Amino acid sequence: MTILLITFVVLLIIGMPISFVIGLAGLAFFASTPDIPFSIAVQRIVAQTQSYSFLAVPFFIFAGNLMNESGITRRLLGLASILTRRMYGGMAQVSVVMSTLMGGVSGSATADAAMETRILGPEMMKRGYPKGYITAVNCLTGLITATIPPSLGLILYGYIGEVSIGRLFCAGIFPGVLMMAVLMLTVNITSRFKGYEKPAPETPRVSGKELFDNLKDSIWALLFPVILIVGIRVGVCTPSEAGAFAVFYAILVGAFVYHEFSFQGFLGALKTSMVDTAAVMLIVTLSGPFSYSVTYENLPQALSTFIFGITENPQLLVIIILLFLFVMGMFLDSNVNFLLLTPIFLPMVRQVGIDPVHFGVLMATIVTMGVMTPPIGSALYTVCGILDCPVEEYTKEAMPFFFAILLEMIILVFFPDIVLFLPNLVYGSY
């Protein structure tokens, strides 16, 4: 275990890509443990790919990229702009609503944050928002996609922990809407306090006809997560088949409903999806030897004993685990945290009676927030790079949003029915 941890920390410090950090640390463990045949390391790498349910990941990545090429994003932006035009911090509020609507399309917090920063960033700068606030809002509102289906984090968690992905999809909807409300309130307060974009008195109210026309134009995107959940629930398709359907759905809507889908757009989405999927799969495969090493050394049991030594209160136990996940998220990619830490913490929370679906939504949120925090947050550096914003400015402006999200997490810990009401209604109680 010493070799494993030392190799992991040293490679991480020198800046090696995280997939190779994990893979080489696992191989170092096998090389230093003569009792275990080295061939097992190779077997574990191959075994990580042998899952039918994991096909959902590349399918949903591809579907999200196709939808961005099909005109859906532009229509959702128009709907979000209408709904928020009489609010303080109008363009920042657009980002929050847009992330909620896009949650059922992109499934990726980093992709959503980057897309919104490119689209909304220049206009927000014209309206007087500083770069730090623009990047903070567009980055942290992307966290809503961590729970709104089809969240890639929930798919990974369900795949690794053998938890119903259909239940997880249902469970993420109310927390996602609650996060939208919390972040919109935070935008309102910070915009009033700092004097950002006060709505003009002459700004017209949203008429019923205008709202109806925009809803009609956006209905195909808004129906997408509903179709997925219903299809999985009634047994028409598995999560992997739902991912394949999502690809087909995106092509049909873009080509025959909005008439904006082109062959060049298809190739662009395919190329982006191949790169995104390859990055995820490299981490997934190379995590095999590392996960085996952790299990072989009984790290889950040791960590469980340590945490249970602090408290056996279910809520306090979950809060301690979430704090640990938050810290880990500052240094490791969210996909890595799902792959490595789900097998460690899921048995612990089950032992104290915490519903695995409830914990999955909490974990998906807190782990994904790691990509938005220094020092190694991928979404953070993506949005800051787009607008050439110093990380220090981003961090200062992001603090109210971090506190708001953590407050929401505490509410979800102590009121699990907010998470579990919808999956229990759709699937029935255990």
What overall geometry do the principal axes of the alpha carbons give?
globular
Helix/strand order, N-terminal first: HHHHHHHHHHHHHHHHHHHHH
- Using only CA atoms, what is the Rg? 22 Å
Residue windows where pLDDT falls under 50 for at least 5 positions: none
Structural classification: mainly alpha
Number of helices: 21
Q: Percentage of helical residues?
A: over 70%
Q: Tell me the major beta sheet.
A: none
Approximate strand percentage: under 5%
Count of strand segments = 0
Rounded mean pLDDT score: 81
End-to-end Cα distance: 38 Å
Oligomer: single chain
Describe the structure.
- The structure is a single chain.
- The longest helix is centred in the middle third of the chain and has 34 residues, at 263-296.
- The chain contains 21 helices and no strands.
- With 430 residues, it is mainly alpha-helical.
- Helix 5 crosses helix 12, helix 7 (109-126) packs antiparallel against helix 8 (131-140) and helix 7 (109-126) runs parallel beside helix 19.
- 51% of the residues are buried.
- The protein starts with a helix and ends with a helix.
- The radius of gyration is 22 Å and the shape is globular.
- It has helices at residues 2-13, 18-31, 39-47, 56-68, 72-84, 90-102, 109-126, 131-140, 152-161, 165-171, 173-194, 208-233, 239-257, 263-296, 299-310, 314-329, 334-351, 356-369, 378-387, 391-414, 417-427.
Please write out the topology:
Elements: H1 2-13, H2 18-31, H3 39-47, H4 56-68, H5 72-84, H6 90-102, H7 109-126, H8 131-140, H9 152-161, H10 165-171, H11 173-194, H12 208-233, H13 239-257, H14 263-296, H15 299-310, H16 314-329, H17 334-351, H18 356-369, H19 378-387, H20 391-414, H21 417-427
Helix pairs in contact: 1-2, 2-14, 3-14, 4-13, 4-14, 5-6, 5-12, 6-7, 6-11, 7-8, 7-19, 8-19, 8-20, 9-17, 9-18, 10-21, 11-20, 12-13, 14-17, 15-17, 16-17, 16-18, 17-18
